[in-house]
Amino acid sequence: MTLQRKTLTAALASCLAFAVGSTHAQTPEPEATLGGELRVGIARDVVNMVPWVAQGASVYIVQQNVYDNLITYDDEGNLTGELAESWEIVDPTTYVLKLRQNVVFHDGDTFDAEDAKVSLDRMRDPTGTSALASQLSSIAEVNVIDPYTIELKLSEPNVVVLSILASSTAHVLSKEWLETEPDLTTEMNGTGPFMFIEFEPGVRTVLERNPNYWKEGLPYLDRLVAIPYADDSSRINALRSGEVNFIEYVPYVEFDSLRQDDQFDLQSGVGPYNILVLNINEEPFDDIRVRQALNYLIDREQLIMLVSEGEGTPMQVGLLQPDDPFYSADLETWTFDPDRALELIQEAGYDGFSDIGFTLTSSTVTIHQDMATVVQALLQGFGMNVSIEIVDVPTLLEYRGNGAYVAMMDGYSNAYQDPDAYSRYFETGGAGYANAVGLSDEILDEMIDRGRAATDVAERKEAYHEFEERLIELAPWYFGFFRPQGEAMIQDVNGYRRWPSGLGGQSTSRMEYVWIQQ
Questions:
Q1: Domains of the chain
Q2: According to the model, what pLDDT value does residue 30 have?
């Protein structure tokens, strides 16, 4: 490892702060009988299989167990190789990745550098649908050096490029398979631990064990079956009745009972966040002062109590949690202050709260509807006229891309562990929000660029501090709260490895380690 690579890797590592959750036994006992079927109750249907698109946590159970990335995270949340066995940072604009050999796709094609290049080219294509195109725009060229080596030539330094390649949508697909023009909405062909077998919309998605998986001896399971239960009660009842043996999105009201029941294991952490995305082109949120007022008017503590049984952390700055090394405690702004909110809307030309009305869009997902309903009640308590529009999940995903809302309840988690993850939402062209509503701000863009280019941690902190100062001023969202998220399983399910902190919501992507005591 070169000195420069050590320096940059240390800079990346210093960006990470995690709280490790509990785990079951990590490897099966020698006498254990392996195999079996894990039936997973998911919070919503998978919708489709399109890679490189952010489709939410319920899709991780499928996509990230079929596809691999070049880079991933270890149990502690540090970057580690997946299909890239190792890498070298030759200079600030040249990265060389050595690829893993003897890896085959599910259709039998051998993985090599051409597959990595084509996948990276798709990810960074600004004319496509990739959620990573903006973040990877600094990659000017992807060069094949030999069958198992690629070179990334950057147009400018970008110290987070490796973290981006570990993000939840950075999947590697087969060049030869893509040339056959498969229907990526219904077909999958990866190198991951499980092979896509069946998708019955609204009923189930079936994955089966990949017998040629490159991690020797894995996966332990024969089959994964993901079954959608949009209703929280139905999902928890399916677990308790034995209809499924694992569920995601455990309802908050069930946390304590599951913790106290020795038939089940609950693993949880605080990482994802609930927010309202605001359309800066539509009244009343085309006025910065109204957007700021909303952030003062909705009481986060009350919101957490009513929506998540008191479990959660208020967002007082932006998307970084208080234990993050880049967190700016001196910028804590968003507190409950209705007097300040009234001043702001009066400055915007309204006589009072009753002069403001808007439609709040929410998906059918319970954690979205619950928060939308509470927000509506809290704002109506001040006289605002707030109506709720309920849409299905495919429409939610569509609205995320086209901005067809005035205000929309949504939930996210950062795609990778670095403050550069802000770029997905607030950098010009960011696929997660900015592109949909046309947000483009010179200061935000400048600070994102500066943070990416700096190898000095102090300089990076300064850049993101200035970024957050500007974000608070613009207030494009109502920054709600970091919510708890948990998975529950029967005690016979072992080996589930929950990633720490903000990565926790992606933990169902690692089902190769799960085994069932039989």
A1: 272-480 (3.10.105.10)
A2: 65
